[in-house]
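User: Here's a chain of 268 residues. Predict its fold as tokens.
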Amino acid sequence: MSKKTAIHWFRKDLRLTDNPSLHHASDADEAITIYIFDDKADIGGASKLWLHHSLKSLNKSLDNKLNIYSGNPLEIIKKLITENSITDFYWNRCYDKYSISRDTQIKKFLEDTGINVKSFNGSLLVEPWKCTKDDGTHYKVYTPFYKALMKSRPHRTNIAKPSFNKLTKLNDSKDISELNLLEPKLDWQEIINGWQVGEEAAIEKLENFLKDKVGDYKKSRDFMSNNATSTLSPHLHFGEISPNQIFNTVYGLDYISSDAEHFIKELV
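Assistant: Prediction complete.
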């Protein structure tokens, strides 16, 4: 039986827990995890700063075996496939127009090369084409959409952190600092120093929110002077925690208050 070597491509899923693509890659005899800073990425200084620290946290959780690249993803992936005996390639889907076009092109290249390629939903409670009206069209009003999602969403337990047979660091990987995400003279640095970045911080923030803040969420969240929101938005944006994890954590509580239910509605 031939050796199975799989690549997981991190994108907006910078976490180990509840990561379906990474889970599949971990089943291989050898797994290679990569992050590519796309040269067409147009993100601001604050996002770059957060991304820098999030990648550092992720790399640490992978025993410093996250492989870092920058440039054109297709060309980088072609080089990786040429230089390594890759049999399988996985990622979690992104849904913006550019990513869909890019990923379609990359998937075709991989399939034409004879590589088993699969993508997964690691970012949404339910994908758009799985929650439609009876006539197949999409909802335009929130409440009917919410009710349909709650009925149609399949229950999926959180996927545990993977244990790898072998996790490989490649010789051509860059250092995270080489991505030049830390812009000089950026005021965001001082602001973000008060934040904890990464998967562990996101999970802790959710737990603290449900313990200390959710009880008055529906009313207090509307007042800027109140520290009443979950502050999970950047963690969700970079995929340090998944909506599925949040949903399951809330519905795992002993009692679901109207405030907790309203928080779920905001998540939806």
